[in-house]
Design a protein that fits this description.
Strands 12, 13, 14, 15, 16, 17, 18 and 19 form an eight-stranded antiparallel β-sheet that branches. The protein has a five-stranded antiparallel β-sheet with strand order 5-6-10-8-9. A four-stranded mixed β-sheet has the order 1-2-4-3, covered by helices on one side. The two termini are 20 Å apart. The chain is globular, with a radius of gyration of 23 Å. The chain contains 18 helices and 19 strands. Strand 5 and strand 6 form a beta hairpin. The chain has five domains: 98 residues, Uridine Diphospho-n-acetylenolpyruvylglucosamine Reductase, domain 2 (2-Layer Sandwich), CATH 3.30.43.10; 119 residues, Uridine Diphospho-n-acetylenolpyruvylglucosamine Reductase, domain 3 (2-Layer Sandwich), CATH 3.30.465.10; 110 residues, 2-Layer Sandwich (Alpha-Beta Plaits); 72 residues, Alpha-Beta Plaits (2-Layer Sandwich); 52 residues, no CATH class. Helix 10 crosses helix 12. 35% of the residues lie in helices and 19% in strands. The protein is an alpha+beta fold and 500 residues long.
Length: 500
């Protein structure tokens, strides 16, 4: 199997006496729930990236801030690694535990602390579900929908901040980082820090932006203040069918070039269309090679004019059919098909591997052709579902883990797709994070100076290297082994972090 992370992590971390750790936690934090029996630990051995599993040493489920601080201080004192976990819906292995570490589950911090309709903000704990924020804000005519991952019914806001989550409306409204005001965190030794403020700007370095997307490597989130938006007066969706994925890809750029910024602009290829239609019955044209879903929202008059303009652009781009949702019920069905594309594709194959890369919009047609060629080369089907407007691709590689070698081929194909994204000027991730999954491809994305800077930031927040080790940032030694980087003059900076 292709090694997706540095397996030396568990082998080189100091041995932890489980009995001593458990006794210390129970003595100092008597009300803290600690899971330590093997059958209790098994449900926590993976996140959404379920192909890789590790049973943690212990799982702790705090309810109060002092318990989180206590766990961090004890682990810091005993030199025990800590991995923070939210709802466990991540797709890059960012919350996978360590055999010699504590899994700190923040799911019980699930209270909405305050909605301020005048300031259009919400203060929430990290375990609050993404969708629950919008539900709580709805009586005030507000919502938190811009970073709306397809898992929003289950994923937690703390995990969204840790991964800088996106979704179908990020083209117009931005990622999680663009919709935050303030985050409260605890450092590895239990110190409280406030990053950002309720003002629109703060003096000094923008540590809030730095922290967002840091995947649990810099601190543990305890509270989040998000921005809320007024619900649009109206929203309408156009569905356009194409007889080739290349035409659909070019149409994406044409819409943006026409001066239209849709609320959402999504694309699905034929394999994904058929799977979603069979699962949801959204009304998709199953004979189309690709479809685009284009949502336009705002004031009624503007949306009406934009719909007419986008229809013209789509027809000129070669669409074989352009359909506007007749009513709100059909609009919801169109989006239900897209948001359920992942589970729908899961019905086509025993397993699938969900990739996450981002490319410039202009490269969409060529990259889709290249993915088709790679699919044929590796003899594995690929269903393409992605946020076309911002170039965030989610190729779903179908395979059967019970067949010898298929998982290896799926991983190799996934790596090639990510390296293709880098080659055309894109990124190895747009919203899922790096975690353990993409750590090799970080070596292709960044040079040694850039990775050295990343390690310096990590060391500034977590000098002991105990927060989520082995994730996100590869060592220069690892990149040299991967063959993707020249290590300058043979020097490996921050040797204290090289074990990770």
């Amino acid at each position: 199997m292709n090694i997706l992370y540095d397996e030396r992590v568990d082998g080189i971390l100091p041995d932890v006496d489980k009995a001593v750790l458990l006794q210390t936690l129970q003595a100092r934090l008597p009300d803290l729930e600690v899971l330590h029996q093997r059958e209790e630990l098994k449900p926590y051995e993976c996140d959404g990236l379920s192909a890789y599993r590790t049973t943690p040493l212990l799982v702790v489920l705090p309810r109060y801030l002092n318990e989180v601080q206590g766990v961090l201080r004890i682990c810091h004192e005993l030199r025990v690694p800590v991995v923070a976990r939210g709802a466990g819906t991540g797709l890059s292995g960012g919350a996978l535990p360590l055999e010699k570490g504590v899994l700190l589950v923040m799911a019980r911090f699930n209270n909405i602390l305050h909605i301020d309709p005048a300031a259009r903000t919400a203060r929430v704990q990290p375990g609050v579900r993404n969708l629950a924020i919008s539900q709580a804000a709805a009586p005030f005519g507000l919502y938190y929908a811009p970073p709306d991952p397809s898992s929003q019914i289950a994923c937690s806001i703390g995990g969204n901040v840790a991964e800088n989550a996106g979704g179908v409306h990020c083209l117009k409204y931005g990622l999680t980082v663009h919709n935050l005001l303030k985050v409260e965190i605890l450092t590895v030794d239990g110190e409280h820090l406030t990053l950002g403020s309720e003002a629109l700007d703060s003096p000094g370095f923008d540590l809030l932006a730095l922290f967002t997307g840091s995947e649990g490597m810099l601190g543990v989130i305890t509270e989040v203040t998000v921005k809320l938006l007024p619900k649009p007066q109206t929203a309408k969706v156009l569905l356009a069918a194409f007889d080739s994925v290349e035409k659909a890809g070019r149409a994406v750029g044409d819409i943006i070039a026409a001066g239209i910024i849709p609320g959402g602009l999504e694309m699905m290829d034929n394999l994904a269309i058929r799977a979603a239609e069979d699962f949801i019955h959204a009304g998709y044209p199953v004979d189309a090679e690709a479809i685009l879903l284009c949502e336009l929202d705002g004031v009624e008059a503007d949306v009406h004019d934009d719909c007419n303009l986008v229809r013209q652009v789509l027809e000129q781009a070669g669409a074989t059919e352009v359909r506007q949702a007749r009513d709100e019920a059909e609009r919801v069905r169109f989006w239900a098909g897209r948001k359920n594309a992942f589970p729908a594709v899961g019905r086509l194959s025993p397993d699938y591997y969900c990739m996450d890369g981002t490319i410039p919009r202009r490269e969409l047609p060529g990259v889709l052709q290249a993915i088709a060629a790679l699919s044929a080369e590796y003899e594995l089907r690929v269903a393409n579902v992605f946020h076309a407007g911002d170039g965030n691709m989610h190729p779903l590689i179908l395979f059967d883990a019970n067949q010898p070698g298929e998982l290896d081929r799926a991983e190799a194909l996934g790596g090639k797709i990510l390296e293709l994204c880098v080659k055309v000027g894109g990124s190895i991730t747009g919203e899922h994070g790096v975690g353990r999954e993409k750590i090799n491809q970080m070596c292709a994305q960044f040079n040694s100076d850039e990775l050295t800077l990343f390690h310096a930031v990590k060391a500034a927040f977590d000098p002991s290297g105990l927060l989520n080790p082995g994730k996100n940032i590869p060592t220069l030694h690892r990149c040299a082994e991967f063959g993707a980087m020249h290590v300058h003059m043979g020097q490996l900076p921050f040797p204290e972090l090289e074990r990770f």
